[in-house]
Amino acid sequence: MSRNIRGIDHVGITVPNMEEATLFFKEAFEAEFVYDNLKKEDKPRTGELVEKRFDMDSGGKETEIRMITIGNSCSIELFCFENTNQNEPASPVDYGIQHIALYVENMHKAVQQFEQAGGTLRTSPQKLSGEIESGAGNCFVYGKTPWGMTIELITYPAGIQYPENSERKRWTP
Length: 173
Prior knowledge:
The chain is of the alpha+beta class.
């Protein structure tokens, strides 16, 4: 039986400044530019359809869209908007998507890159816990981008101890 849903294609992230956000993702995570779907010099997208699509204030403008990718994973679509009320980024206790996690080979190096690019860690890296995720070298840390979005860095070189009732193994880049 073939599946209709194949997987996550991309994650959308609204950023305050396209060039600064792109530079952060490149420096922190070795992201690569894929394409611009709406450039700053293009005519902004406005009107009732755009407002309805994004649940945006009347008169709001979609001004930039850029696709980037990090390693072997789904893409990230960056958005910029103008003339609309914007909330602070979600924290891990808010409803909805509250962080993205990036699998790293070397936690120490990943933390250095993240901080050098302008990110700040909430804590130092912590061991993954519980019987399923614990193991030598398995750890994670939460950090914030320069604009306040939460990103998790995670590694589990010792693997995951899947329970017998697991229907599938988790995808790992």
